[in-house]
UniProtKB/TrEMBL annotation:
The lineage of its organism: Bacteria, Pseudomonadati, Pseudomonadota, Alphaproteobacteria, Caulobacterales. Pfam families: NfeD. The chain crosses the membrane at residues 12-31. This is Membrane protein implicated in regulation of membrane protease activity. Residues 93-143 form the NfeD-like C-terminal domain. The keyword tRNA-binding does not apply. Keywords: Hydrolase, Membrane, Protease, Transmembrane, Transmembrane helix. One of its GO terms (molecular function) is peptidase activity.
Length: 153
């Protein structure tokens, strides 16, 4: 049984490493962790080198060393805490930083603003009364869908 595997490896080493690379890459694509890219790439490199080496122990050792080295390098340079981006489907959160104009004068710090072609309930950050047609900047959210705005100078 073992001699059959050794013979198979001797004849098809390149394709075996390509299959390993493809399998690891398929798992990476299925789960999307980003960490299995390195072993997949290392298996592809070893596949190419197997065309010249014809030494199973060297190839397995090289795969192990390359995988460890690339994974450690990736840990060093890959961003660990990627900030979650705002959801493009969240109509309210995407408005932060946008400018608009007052469509209903603010009374007691609350009124309505037009931002990106849609009218929104809003409150001023400092509680000031904003005049009709005043230009405002959206600086945050209050209560889920109420915009927090400040007057533009």
């Amino acid at each position: 049984m073992m001699t059959g595997l050794v013979d198979f490896y001797g004849v098809h080493a390149f394709w075996l490493w390509v299959a390993i690379a493809a399998a690891v890459l398929a798992i990476e694509i299925a789960f999307g962790s980003g960490w299995l890219l390195w072993p997949a790439a290392c298996a592809a490199v070893v596949a190419i080198l197997s065309l010249f080496t014809h030494n199973a122990a060297l190839e397995i050792g090289l795969f192990a060393v390359l995988t460890i080295a690339t994974t450690l390098a990736a840990r060093r340079f890959w961003p660990r805490n990627r900030q979650p981006e705002t959801d493009i489907n969240d109509n309210v959160a995407r408005l932060v930083g946008h400018h608009g104009r007052v469509t209903a004068a603010f009374i007691h710090g609350a009124g309505r603003v037009l931002v990106d072609g849609k009218e929104w309930a809003a409150e001023s950050v400092d509680g000031s009364a904003l005049e009709l047609e005043a230009i405002v900047e959206v600086v945050g959210l209050s209560g889920g869908s109420r915009l927090r705005v400040r007057a533009q100078a």
